[in-house]
Amino acid sequence: MGWGNTITRRLKVFSMALLIYFDYKAVQKRVQWVSTTKKSATWTKTHERNARRVLNLMIELEGLWVKMGQYLSTRADVLPEPYINVLKQLQDSLPPRPLEEVRGTIEKELGKPMSDVFADFVLDPLATASIAQVHRATLADGREVVVKIQHDGIKEIILEDLKNAKSLIEWIAWAEPQYNFNPMIDEWCKEAPKELDFNHEAENTRTVSRNLSHKTDCGSGSISSAVHVLIPEVIQSTDKVLILEYMDGIRLNDNDSLEAYGVDKQKLVEEITRAYAHQIYIDGFFNGDPHPGNFLVSKEPPHKPILLDFGLTKRISKSMTQALAKMFLSCAEGDHVALLSAFAEMGLKLRVDMPQQAMDIATVFFRQSTTASEAKENIKALSDQRERNVKALQEKMKLNKKEVQKFNPVDAFPGDAIIFMRVLNLLRGLSASLNVKIVYLDIMRPFAESTLLGLTHGQIPNSQWIYDSPANSDVESKLRNYLLELGSDKILGIQVCAYKDGKVIIDTAAGMLGKYDPRPVQPDSLFPVFSVTKGITAGMVHWLVNEGKLKYEETVANIWPNFGTNTKELIKVHHLLNHTSGLHNALGDVVKSDPMLVCDWEETLNQIAKCTPETEPGSAQIYHYLSFGWLCGGVIEHASGKKFQEVLEEAIVRPLHIEGELYIGIPPGVESRLAALTVDTEELQKLSGIRAGPGVPPELLNNVAQMASGVPVLFNTLNVRRAIIPAANGHCSARALARYYAALATGGSIPPPHSADSKPPLGSHVHTPKFPTAPLKKKKGTGKKKCVSSTGNLQDVSNSDKNGYSQLRTSDADDEAAAAGSGSRIFSSDKILDAFMGVGEYESMVHPNGKFGLGFRRYSNASGTLRFFGHSGMGGSTGFCDVENNFAMAVMVNKMSLGSVTRGVVRLVLEELGLPVPDEFSTSGEKGPDMVLNLAPPEQQS
Fold this sequence. Notes:
It holds the Pfam family ABC1. It is a single chain. Helix 3 (64-73) crosses helix 4 and helix 21 packs parallel to helix 26. The protein is an alpha+beta fold. The strands form nine sheets. It has a seven-stranded antiparallel β-sheet with strand order 18-17-16-28-27-26-25, with helices on both faces. Strands 1, 2, 3, 4, 7 and 8 form a six-stranded antiparallel β-sheet that branches. The protein is elongated and about 105 Å long. The chain is built from 35 helices and 29 strands. Helix content is 44%, strand content 13%. The relative contact order is 0.08. The N and C termini lie far apart (92 Å).
């Protein structure tokens, strides 16, 4: 192609682009002053006018522009109807090339006259496309075939068109920054030239055919044929000629024939989608160009799809396949943590921390398809969502309207993901053009699960399932064997840590971070532990009493003035700790109607201060399953004059040197270490035979099955995980929690440094957030609080972040000084153990024969002696200590159950050590360490 032709093509492309751009801009201004009816008619005429301009230019230029037009013609779900009606003409044949050109290419490529190869060659082509045209023929041996012949000189045209398309996209991105398609065109420039080698296409066709004919386990436990599609056999190929088996089929745009043959279009598109799910998630090798022209439908029942044209076929690595599967499944589950992990594994880098918006955008690609008739509603929905995301970005980054249009939240976009998303868009367009709806989440899920869970590659070896770290004791070796015996059916991910006489004797991690996150659990992984958090929050209250900041007998209203309303004037601090305040259901109805209220720390404190008790303070011990955290949290902030997170760091995290491994509400930056929750469905079924004990609110049990299945969905979202919920939103490692209880077991003595064999070392992570040094005002309401940052600037702390995080940071020198000033004990009181347990002089502060001391669940051994205390959480995680034997233990799990795994682990360890087993974990005791339920098995209930 000469320079003159090149310049002419380029001028035509850019002239047309400018003409259409200014046409739309002019209409955009003009329709502001007309009625709604006239506005709609004006836009329809504008779309028709410009669609015809685009069509005429594409037919004239051929090459890449036809292929682009074919792609656009499939997007009935997002493009205005006039464009679809006009551009779908490109799905039919283009004007054919002369027979002399066709004959010359065939004879040059095959090295012999056409008459020697074909007994018959039909002169009229079956179809003429952008790169080649296809003729029907009969080989000399009688086989019916189709012959694909590349257009003469098309390679130079395509390469030039790619340059022009790249320039055009760059100009659009400059003129309208919100429409930056550079990553997509870059990937297309890399992949499109591969279509010009028919030997490459032939090998791709053979590979896809082999892959789709294999038997595959799709996650249901049964082996079945993966997909039911037909692919022509490759007979012969050269660089520019491809001979394939002839298959008689119906074109997808031939609606009359589809109706006449009784083709079920819904099942047809579902099977095509299944074929692509297999190619992407199982094979890692897929056709990147599924437009309607690349499919036929067999005329014989059951009318299978016939897959054609594998020129643009993409191979992706196993790691990318798994990342795409994780992205899909995290969208299906609403799991922000897994989604961000998938982005990182894909190489997708974001410039801004907005997990909810990232989830919204990612979910767009897997949304249910719409019919062409619903295109307007779909476009409006997508536009509305985009506006919401732009608004959120503008608020987050504090940008003006002009700046937000130019801001690109994506720092790096992997090419593999671009082709993947193009395929999804083409499939969506295919379903829209055939006027059927496809639920991608249902169809593609088994294939994504199969890949991510490794069902096609066998189970994880034992050597990899248990994290590679040296055993600290013989009992730890026996524990690891026990975990292997339980296996992945009962355990998803687990951490176990134990201290005896101040020394680490167990520090084991095993399994995976999540059902859809196959990364191994490590010692520093963070597990959500639910009510285990109450034991940490209680420790903060005790620390403030020890520091002289409040008293157990003090009325809460004296510390927190807004609290003293609605007959709460007599509630004391020890009533909160002992679950006897009468506020066991506080905020229950509010949270049920608005679950996301839990993310607003200040509002929950305001709401709980307005609640009315249901029973007289001290009269009944009824488990405060959620209210405990906000009640104690309000006391902590008002008594200390500091933010909740600051007190947690000062009282527990820094003295124990467990930075980065114990949080109540996680800060941004730790997502890569988070374990994701799932539910043991078999154990959940056992709830039907269990009723609540006397100290459990009946309202809790009535909704427990629904709550247990819904909790992972809610708590796998980052906005909930980042919230301060001091009754239920702790995130910690077993080694951090065990160290905490090892200190409590001795009345506050800080144990020696954690085992040096545990990698990474405990306390080596940066602990964020850090807090301003200026104190907040004590015993005041919830007004805005000002403080001075380390840079000397006055800043508003209360509005810095709804979940309580301040963006302010103390200096490293402040941290070092605070660490150096901490003593070897957390508590100085020699009676602190009695306070934890609610015995001795504190016995009058706890309910007689109640299960709780002051903030901790107290356990007895076989002789009835109360020498154990701790706290377990819904799903099975637990932390506790044995004061008499100076023993502490923590177990973290992410497969939520009624606690059978945890109970077995605790019993094994204690029996091996010859230590008494707390009644909650014994064979004759209650049903597992589940303090939210606090239930007993049916045979033990009266």
